[in-house]
Every structure is written in C-alpha cells, then in structure tokens.
Fold:
Amino acid sequence: MTTFLIRPLENRDIAATATLFFRSVREGAAAHYSAAERAAWAPAPPDPENWRNRLISQHVLVAEVDEGRIVGFMSRDNTGYLDLAFTDPDRAGQGVAAALYARLEESALKDRIARLSCDASLGLRPFLLRRGWTLLREQYPVRQGVTLRNFRMEKILTSP
Structure:
C-alpha cells in the first residue's frame, strides 16, 4: 500500500490540480461517461487563474507522493458541499480517494458541519454510498449542450 501525504492545498498545487482534474475527467471517467460527455464536462484544462479563484474559497486537501507529485484532491466549501473529488487515473483503487475523504470528513466534523452534500458523478456515487451517504435524487445537468447524469447525495455527520 502506497503512503500518501495528505495536506492542505498550496498555491504551488494550482496547476497540478487543474491538470489532474482534466485527466481524471477525460481518462478516469471513461468507464462511466461517453467521450462527448467527458468533453462537455471538461472541454479543456481549467484556466489557472479561474481555477485558483474557485479553489481559494474552499477547504482543499491534496494527496502527494514522491515529494511533490499530486495524485488526488478533494474540496468542500464552508457549508459542507463536496465540490471536487478527483484522483490520478493511474492511481485508481490505491486508496487515494479514501485517504482524502477520511481527512475531509474529519475536518468537517472539526468545523462543526452537520451535513455534507454533493452532486456525485457515476464513479463517485458508489464510493460515497460505501461511506454512509444517502442518494437523494438523480439529476441531468447540461454542460456545453450535452446532458450528463449525476446524483444529489448527502451525509448527516455525527461525532463519535
């Protein structure tokens, strides 16, 4: 089992997380979404300044290996909305998402957030269900004129 350093996002991670997001959607989501759907979801790597502005207002954790290589990241806002959850497609099934999620939920509890919510992709849905999340409804957002499929989910947090 590979050990990951889980740490808060730093400014130096912006470009790496943007690239990882794009690769995750385009390659990692291929088992769940068509090429047209993935192209609509991520038509190009995010603009670094827009990406930085999106991330700066959130609680973002990154998983790092090999002294600096980012292999995953997750973010939540101050209301408990899980906005981004992406891992390197080459690291799928190696515990990256599990390590990130455990720390993200721990931080939400510490911040006294009573409920987590998200719009989960087809790939994220089973991961969250295994962690006690509830499926609320199926959704069909439209991106770039293409209809995608995701799921509104939530988890009520209780401290131990």
